[in-house]
Amino acid sequence: MINDKPAFAYRGLMIDSARNFIPIGSLERMIDGMSYNKLNMLHWHLSDSNSFPFFSRTYPQMTHYGAYSKKEIYTPNQVRNLVEYALVRGIKIIPELDAPAHAGNGWQWGPETEVYGQLAFCINEEPWNTLCGQPPCGQLNPANPKVYEVLGGLYRDMFSVFDLDLFHMGGDEVMFECWKKLEIENFMEEKNITNFINLRAYFQATAYEKLKEASRNIKSKSSQKYFSKSNFPPIPIIWSSDLTNHIKTLVDNGINSTDYFIQVWEGTPLESEEVQNLIDSNYTLIVSNMGKVYLDLGSGSWLGKNHDLRYINWQSLYDFNFDVNGYNTSKIVENSRFGRIPQILGGEAPLWTEKVNEMTMDSKLWPRGSAFAERLWTNPTVKSSSPIVYSRLLRQNELMKMRGIRVDTRQPKSCLLIGTVCLNDFDVNPSPPIEES
């Protein structure tokens, strides 16, 4: 008898289609590759300050102002079909509508209506490095009630095509310099909000109310037959950030450990006191540490030396042991929707697309995604230096290539055919990733 089950419930990849548009066919191929590796969560970063490619029936202005072109838009039918395509392959697509930062192009239309007003500040402004994490800039206006109205409409449109139990609300890299506006200062005084961290919490709490409101009585046609819709509201996911570094502010604003999942990207518990505080406060975590599992790094810089980051090789992904890095994978916490669950849900390897498009994404994803998938399925004690691991990765590469996945290669094919002849002493202890100069 074969006993086989996943070590982690959440085994994911992330794709960003806002910085560079990714066609539906390429997303389907990514889903195929995930299904061949027992990955089950596709986090779809659908919006950013660069572009807004998701077509909203409620607010078609978003793509009119935010899409790169008329051909680079995802229609509701396309999204619904993609969600169905993923579900029948055992994969849930989790959409992300990033807010309040990373929200620029697509949000310009408010002042032209004479009703909605200034929906976002700093859109495409310079100098960018004081106003946003990377160009182009854009950050939602937390003082404008119409912002929350628009978010509610977008949430409803997204819930009409996506499943309703998980939703990624973004939330990272809010730059307070962009919020130093008279309108916001007056709003903070009126609401007795004493600092920008509390304003950030106010935004998150108000947006979440709109998310819950949007989820009520919405039936997702694509996934109705796969998932129960009775347990509202959906669980929001947010990135770790300055906000999640302030536990008391989170709790005071109803951003509770029982209601939220936090996607940690900045450091492990051994490296970050803030991450350890989240663990101590019983927040459920999805692990996506930038220096450990990001798939887009190491291809040179486009913003200067501050973005020169090391390439994460497949060995590093395979050997990323959660417990060794300070994550207690045996701890159980309470969740308002799912009951008692592991605090460490699992991991997700993001592929941001500053330097990635549909022509290069496969080689960025595979075979490194296969190595990370095995970490998430079996949580192996064996190291990547084992000849067994290397030979199985090569065979998996060949199988995926036969199935139409454009995998990157790691050795000459003769190594696969001959066996361990290609393993030398230096393979036993592979060197760490090399820092770019």
Question: Would you write up a description of this structure?
Answer:
By secondary structure, this protein is of the alpha/beta class. It is built from 16 helices and twelve strands. It has an eight-stranded parallel beta sheet with strand order 3-2-1-12-9-8-7-6. It has a two-stranded antiparallel sheet with strand order 4-5. The protein has a two-stranded antiparallel sheet with strand order 10-11. Strand 10 and strand 11 form a beta hairpin. The longest helix has 20 residues. About 4% of the residues have low confidence.
Write the layout of secondary structure elements.
Blueprint: E1 10-16, H1 24-35, E2 41-45, H2 61-66, H3 76-87, E3 92-96, H4 110-113, E4 120-121, E5 139-140, H5 145-159, E6 166-168, H6 182-191, H7 196-215, E7 235-239, H8 247-252, E8 261-264, H9 273-280, E9 284-287, H10 290-293, H11 314-318, E10 332-335, E11 339-342, E12 344-351, H12 361-365, H13 368-378, H14 387-402, H15 413-418, H16 425-428
Parallel strand pairs: 1-2, 1-12, 2-3, 6-7, 7-8, 8-9, 9-12
Antiparallel strand pairs: 4-5, 10-11
